[in-house]
Each structure stands twice: as C-alpha cells, then as structure tokens.
C-alpha cells in the first residue's frame, strides 16, 4: 500500500490530525491503528471532562488549546450527536493553602477568558453540590462531561466519508524505516509506504520515534489511573463534577468525582506506576515494559525526589487498599462509604519523562523534514484534541 501520509495511531489526536489534514489538503492519508476497535487506550479510558482552561498558565499552549478545545468540542458533539453535558465543575479547597491556590486558578481563568465564580463558604458550595465539603471553591460553569468513546467514533465516521482518508484497524506498526521517498512502515498486516509520517501512537509514540532517532532524551512512563463507580442508589452524592484543588507540583489533577453523560458517577483516577504500557489491572505485569521503566535513568532520577517517592507510595496504597482510595474520596464528599464504591475501569497515561527526571507537563511534538512525532499529548489531551490536531495538520501541510 502506498499513501501520501501515514498517521500512526487512531486515538482522538491521530483522528483529529487526519480530519484537519483531509479537510484542507488533497493528500491521501492512511491511519494505521493496531487495535481492531477504536478508543481502546487513553482516548476511551479517561474521565471524559472538558477542562475549560483555568488550570493552565495564560498564553501557554495548554491554556490556548484547552480553552478553544472546550468550545469546539461542544459544537462538534452537538453537530455529530455525541453526548456532552455542560455540568460545570467545582474545585474544592480544604485548607488555607489550597484556598490561596484557588486565587491563582481564578487569575488564570480571568486571563484565559474562562467563566468562574469563587465560593467562599460551605453554604455556597452546598448550593452547587449538597454533599461536597470544603472551605472555599472555584466554580467553572463551562466544564462539561463528554462520552469520549463516542467522540472517537464520530471522528472516525466523519473521516471514513472522505475519499482521501483510509482507516486501517488491526495494523500494528512494528518498524519504521526512513527511505529516499519517505517511510517504509512494517505492520502486523500489510506494509505501507508513505511520503510523510505523523506519529500519534500515544503510549508507544516514544518507541516508534526512537527507531528514527527522534526524542531519544525522553521516554514514556505509564501511569495507571483507576476509577471506582458509585453505586446507583448513592449516585446523588455528586450532581456534577467535584475536583480537589490541584497540587501545582504534580501533573495529575487528583481523585475527583465525575457525573458521566450516561448518569453514572465515577471517582478517580489515582496515579500509580503501571507495570506495563497496557497493564490496566493492578495484577498485570509486562516484564519487558517494566524493566524498560525501572532501568530508565529519567525514572530513577524522578524517584530520587522525596516528594515524588512519598506521592508514589500514597498512590500505590490507593491502588491496592480500597480503604485508602475511600479516604481520598471522602476528602471531598465525606458521606461516601467504602461499600458505595465499586471497582470500575482504568486508563493509562502516557506520561513523558526526560532523561534528567522531569515530568513533561506541556504538549510536545518534534518535527522532522517530512514528519511530526507527537511525544506528549498530555491531559487535557481530549479537551484539546480539535485545535491540537489542527495545529499538527497545519505543521505537516507546511512541509508538503
Ligand atoms: C486516566 C486518564 C484520565 C484522563 N482524563 C482526561 C479528561 O478528563 N479530560 C481530558 O481532556 N483529557 C483526559 N485525559 C487525557 C486524554 O485522554 C489523552 O490526552 C488523549 O486521549 C490522548 O490521545 P492520543 O490519541 O494521543 O492517545 P491514544 O488514545 O492512546 O491513542 C493512541 C493510539 O495509537 C495506537 N497505537 C499505539 N501504538 C501503535 C502501533 N505501534 N501501531 C499502530 N497503532 C498504535 C493505540 O492503539 C491507540 O489507539 C486522561 C487520560 C487518562 C489516561
């Protein structure tokens, strides 16, 4: 098979890149997706929250993509029949330090043009969420809950209607070789020749990039996020979405409550080292992946930090001891009991770590003469997927 562009990875990012590329150029684009069904990894295993942009510093890529992404996703979902509900989010502060950080979030919201209100009492919090407890909260009405799997399928349906796009599922890319004409891509199915390459392989993007000598100073470290579901009879404990005040030192937002578009309320995710890039259960181990992580100097340096070590220990406990997970959940909604929580699904974040032990917090892509490698489509990657994919499509189209 031969195509102008090969996009490796049919998650929300790869599909969005393809949507925008095929909309604005005549390039013949092939998406190579290893799974037989879409949305099997990050794009279908997340909280499904559209983050309107108050969590990110003004003028950062994250802020721009999230703010614009929230608006565009809502329009897209309305147009394509994807369930999406603008429920609003409450970010709850339990301590003076957290309350002070809410001011930073408010400033960011102001600068990024995101609607918000600061609630300064327990009574004001209760008006939004009768069971949430805190001393203050930031309320952002534009946050929304979306069915991320249906979004992925809507993108795929739209693309499949285009004459210049082909979606190949069940095509796991094993090897990419640079040739005079572009790339030769070996897959578990037929091989593909392409003049241009977009690497949007999520949890495996670094492995493929390394084959071409790209991004060798980084490695994906897989962090699993587990969810519990509140039993239906207790689901009224959360009406909308309740988040803790994030710790600015950490890349993850902390265990939160999300009312999904199907009415279920999920609690999570924690953030624990996964013993494999696709080790979704806490008993799953992929020895090769695990060895790769444990021997990676960036990971070793990350764990040398006392803060990280204590966070890692606390998160590990939340994974293996339900009592610890319940305690974290009770911080926001004290009425929730262990018996109200039933184990649900898990997702794995493709967290990029650098050789010097830094967690890469911003979206990161690396350009080559005829390729773009997306190494870090970090959260809120779902929210950002439309403008981010468009940006990558423009970047690639400029090379043609
Ligand atoms: C637990 C969790 C909660 C999150 N919550 C939110 C949230 O509430 N809001 C938000 O905005 N973002 C959230 N995110 C982030 C968001 O889900 C991701 O940023 C986004 O889905 C990344 O999309 P992607 O297309 O890059 O990755 P993926 O969805 O992982 O897609 C990559 C695709 O590449 C395929 N692939 C990999 N290797 C190969 C190969 N060798 N050959 C062919 N195909 C390959 C995979 O099968 C996969 O389909 C969350 C993420 C996680 C894990």
UniProtKB/TrEMBL annotation:
A GO CC term attached to the entry: cytoplasm
Domain of life from the UniProt record: Archaea
Keywords, in A-Z order: FAD, Flavoprotein, Oxidoreductase
Stretches assigned to the FAD dependent oxidoreductase domain: 4-394
InterPro entries in alphabetical order: FAD-dep_OxRdtase, FAD/NAD-bd_sf
EC number(s) reported in the record: 1.1.3.-
Gene Ontology MF annotations: (S)-2-hydroxyglutarate dehydrogenase activity
Cofactor(s), by name: FAD
Family, similarity comment: Belongs to the L2HGDH family.
Name listed for the protein in its UniProt record: L-2-hydroxyglutarate oxidase
Organism: Haloarcula limicola
């Amino acid at each position: 098979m031969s195509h102008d562009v090969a996009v490796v990875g049919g998650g929300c990012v790869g599909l969005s890149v393809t949507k925008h590329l095929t909309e604005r150029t005549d390039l013949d684009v092939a998406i190579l997706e290893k799974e037989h069904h879409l949305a099997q990894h990050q794009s279908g295993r997340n909280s499904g929250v559209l983050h309107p942009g108050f969590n990110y510093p003004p003028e950062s890529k994250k802020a721009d993509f999230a703010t614009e992404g929230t608006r565009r996703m809502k329009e897209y979902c309305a147009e394509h029949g994807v369930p999406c509900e603008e429920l609003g989010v409450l970010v709850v502060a339990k301590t003076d330090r957290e309350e002070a950080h809410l001011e930073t979030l408010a400033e960011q919201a102001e600068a990024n043009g995101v609607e918000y209100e600061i609630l300064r009492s327990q009574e004001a919090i209760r008006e939004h969420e009768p069971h949430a407890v805190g001393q203050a909260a930031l309320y952002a009405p534009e946050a929304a809950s979306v069915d991320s799997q249906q979004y992925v399928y809507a993108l795929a349906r739209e693309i499949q209607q285009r004459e210049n796009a082909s979606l190949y599922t069940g095509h796991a890319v094993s090897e990419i070789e640079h040739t005079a004409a572009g790339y030769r891509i070996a897959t578990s199915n037929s091989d593909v020749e392409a003049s241009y390459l977009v690497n949007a392989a999520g949890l495996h993007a670094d492995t493929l990039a390394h084959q071409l000598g790209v991004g060798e100073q980084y490695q994906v470290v897989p962090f699993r996020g587990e969810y519990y579901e509140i039993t239906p009879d207790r689901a009224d404990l959360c009406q909308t979405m309740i988040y803790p005040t994030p710790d600015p030192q950490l890349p993850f937002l902390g265990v939160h409550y999300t009312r999904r578009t199907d009415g279920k309320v999920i609690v999570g995710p924690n953030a624990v080292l996964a013993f494999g890039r696709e080790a979704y259960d806490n008993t799953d181990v992929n020895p090769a992946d695990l060895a790769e992580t444990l021997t990676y100097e960036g990971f070793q340096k990350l764990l040398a930090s006392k803060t990280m070590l204590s966070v890692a220990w606390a998160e590990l406990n939340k994974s293996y001891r339900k009592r610890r997970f319940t305690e974290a959940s009770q911080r926001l909604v004290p009425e929730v009991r262990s018996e109200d929580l039933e184990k649900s699904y898990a997702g794995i974040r493709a967290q990029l770590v650098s050789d010097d032990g830094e967690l890469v917090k911003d979206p990161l892509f690396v350009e080559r003469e005829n390729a773009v490698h997306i190494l870090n489509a970090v959260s809120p990657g779902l929210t950002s997927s439309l403008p981010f994919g468009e940006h990558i499509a423009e970047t690639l189209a400029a090379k043609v």
